[in-house]
């Protein structure tokens, strides 16, 4: 649908009517040829920003998917890198792209790690968690980091109400809510449930000290607002 190598409309429909786990198992072989993959510009900008704070030792990619975040970890970590996801299909693709990484299949709302990582990253995953599920996710990441460890992720600035993008995202979330009200199993994917103030609140409650900075290489909108932010949440030393 998006490109000759991407999924067809029929394949996307089957995915959308599946559970999140089954849907991503089906989509995994063609995921990198869809707009759902985090753009390379964000990956590169995040790696550049984190390189200024590194080097790090062991790294963890939370909800690693096909491994975009593992690319960042490989660039800034001197030690082993690990990806965790609950989709076996996505992990298989990540393994093909990052044969040296350790890959773990797990529900990230109950991460199975002790404090062993210096850096954790995540890309494009927060919309798959309802607001009431974020505390468990953030507490698990906090638990997986060594004292002084850093959790970093990029998040886009919401488009202004006057833009077409605002209404497209609003419509998408509305369709997903209707779908989940009438169809089981649910497919949790929302674009408007992760405002920065709520994320900061949940991260702080999980024990992180939070900084938020603009990813300047992603540019600014006409009103001067950064297009993308980098959230930096640090576990106390």
TrEMBL record:
Gene3D superfamilies referenced in this protein's UniProt entry, alphabetically: Vaccinia Virus protein VP39 (3.40.50.150)
GO MF annotations, alphabetized: methyltransferase activity
InterPro entries the record matches: Methyltransf_25, Methyltransf_Superfamily, SAM-dependent_MTases_sf
GO biological process, one term: methylation
Pfam families the record matches: Methyltransf_25
Coiled coil: none
Domain Methyltransferase: 60-149
Alphabetical keyword list: Methyltransferase, Transferase, Ubiquinone
Protein name in UniProt: Ubiquinone/menaquinone biosynthesis C-methylase UbiE
Organism, as annotated: Paractinoplanes abujensis
């Amino acid at each position: 649908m998006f490109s000759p190598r991407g999924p067809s409309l029929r394949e996307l429909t089957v995915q959308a009517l599946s559970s999140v786990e089954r849907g991503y198992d089906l989509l995994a072989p063609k995921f990198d040829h869809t707009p759902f993959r985090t753009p390379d510009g964000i990956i590169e900008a995040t790696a550049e920003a984190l390189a200024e704070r590194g080097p790090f030792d062991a790294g963890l990619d939370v909800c690693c998917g096909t491994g975009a975040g593992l690319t960042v970890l490989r660039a800034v970590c001197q030690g082993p890198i690990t990806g965790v996801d609950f989709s076996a299909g996505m992990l298989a693709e990540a393994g093909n792209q990052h044969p040296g990484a350790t890959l773990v299949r797990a529900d990230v709302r109950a991460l199975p790690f002790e404090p062993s990582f210096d850096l954790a990253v995540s890309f494009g995953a927060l919309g798959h968690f309802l607001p009431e599920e974020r505390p468990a996710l953030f507490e698990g990441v906090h638990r997986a980091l060594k004292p002084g460890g850093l959790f970093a992720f990029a998040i886009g600035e919401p488009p202004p109400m006057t833009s077409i993008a605002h209404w497209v995202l609003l419509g998408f979330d509305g369709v997903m809510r209707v779908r989940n009200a009438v169809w089981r199993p649910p497919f949790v994917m929302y674009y408007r449930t992760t405002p920065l103030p709520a994320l900061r609140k949940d991260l702080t409650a999980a024990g992180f000290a939070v900084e938020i900075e603009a990813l300047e290489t992603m540019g600014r909108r006409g009103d001067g607002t950064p297009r993308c932010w980098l959230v930096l949440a640090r576990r106390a030393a």
